[in-house]
Amino acid sequence: MIVAVGIVAVFFYRTETIPPFLQERAGFGGVSLRLEYATTPEAREQGLGGRTEIDEDYGMLFVFPRDGKHGFWMKDMLVPVDIFWLDSKGQVVFIARDVATSTHPNVFYPTEQARYVLETASDFARGHNIVTGTQLRLKNLPSVSQ
Question: What is the maximum alpha-carbon separation in the chain?
């Protein structure tokens, strides 16, 4: 009986503390990033909105079902970010650097088609020499149907 109560307690503890986004490590420009995936329309809409800080080794990867010129804006953002659009192979095709919270309601679009969008702390691109063509290194690039 005590074991069953313990298992139930661990289940509830774990489900309350695990973030709603899948996490994984990735290499990006020689840096190891902790990635969270935004894979649903709701998660992509929420994104990093409301966060008061973004760690230097953190990124949120927005996963789209198909290539497109996906627009991003700074609605509900409290900190500036770098935004990277990546193709279906994970290569950077466009970068918006140091996007300030004051830019809302402007929408930022890439010049090329992209499947993924990665947001990091502001100045990440400059600090780690991330340029067009830089590869995001993951075991498997995620895919979604919605």
Answer: 61
